[in-house]
Amino acid sequence: MPADQHATLRAVSALAQGIQKDVDAHRKETATDALLEREIQYQLPVGGTATAEPSEAIWGTVSFNFEHSFPSVSQGMRDSDLETPQVSFGWQLKTGTPVALFASVRNWVYDDTKNITGVRLSVSALALGSSDDVDFRAVLHLTIQGWGAPTDTFEDTEGS
Fold first, then answer.
1. Runs of H (alpha helix) within 49-150
2. How many angstroms separate the Cα of 153 from the Cα of each of 53, 80, 150?
3. 6-10, 38-42, 102-106, 131-135: lowest mean pLDDT where?
4. Separation CA 50–CA 70 (nearest Å)
5. How far apart are the first and last CA of the chain?
6. pTM summary value
7. Contact at 8 Å (CB) between 5 and 12?
8. CA distances from 112 to 71, 73, 74, 119, 126 (A)
9. How far is CA 57 from the centre of its chain?
10. Distance of alpha carbon 52 from alpha carbon 133, whole angstroms
């Protein structure tokens, strides 16, 4: 191969590498604020009395806002066609006697543009296999995954 072809190939290769570096830098720069597949995790302290009798279970309610918002319609921009974020729960007991925690999404909190910005959960505890009610403390683990973006990542520049 003639020398001028080698030089052309090197120049094209360098150009392609430069373009890729620019694309990677742009993705990294915008990923903080971009609408992407997101996962957020919470650990909520819970406690009370777990009933030994399932028919006597008491449900408590907890509501909170996310630091990400999730559009209620992903407009075909994700692999999943789920209309709301995927939610999973777990728990870590802080006391000795085992209890089972149950959590359910009661409803989503929407803003005026129909983005999901929070959740309202119902939580209950049962002392399954126990003959008596059990006082407990635990941490409820909550993972929310879906197509979303941070709600406020821009710095306030007023007065600067």
1. none
2. 47, 26, 6
3. 6-10
4. 33
5. 59
6. 0.67
7. no
8. 11, 14, 16, 15, 38
9. 28
10. 5
Query: What are residue 151's phi and psi, to 5 degrees?
Result: -85, -30
Q: Are 101 and 78 in contact (CB under 8 A)?
A: no
Q: Range with the lowest mean pLDDT among 12-21, 22-31, 91-100, 137-146?
A: 22-31
**C-alpha closest to that of 125 among 100, 93, 89, 96:** 100
Q: Can you tell me the distance from the alpha carbon of 150 to that of 35, in angstroms, rounded to the nearest whole number?
A: 8
Phi, psi (rounded to 5 degrees) for 26 = -65, -45
Are 99 and 50 spatial neighbours (Cβ–Cβ below 8 Å)?
A: yes
Q: Which residue has the tokens 């979303």?
A: 148
What long-range pairs does 73-77 form, CB within 8 A, spacing at least 24?
73/114, 74/146, 74/147, 77/35, 77/147
Torsion of CA 26, 83, 146, 22, to 10 degrees: -10
Give the residue carrying structure tokens 């007065």: 159
Record the tokens describing residue 72, joined without a space: 């209620």
